[in-house]
Amino acid sequence: MKYITREQIRQLASSETVFYRGMRYYAAHAVSRMTWNGSSGQYRALVKGGSQYVVTIEEEDGEIHYTCNCPAYVKYSGACKHVIAALLFISDYQKRKTQEETE
Largest CB tally within 10 Å, which of 4, 8, 9, 16? Predict the structure, then answer.
């Protein structure tokens, strides 16, 4: 997956409020079991909210596609707070990996 910035993540969020809720979820370490499947080009994570939600994220033709099994994902357009938290996890991982490679 190409490098993703916080600004890009913010633009994917269904609202500014959802973006900040996703940031709080990420800061609270709600994202767990993040895995990468190289053959499908897909990330998968569990995000703990009111329940445990499954988030999948992949990039296709330069666009980020995502799913979540929470009720908000179906109800609203744009990324839910669980997807935002998972994207922030990926973004920070990409930053750390890039720093390690340059050192």
Answer: 9
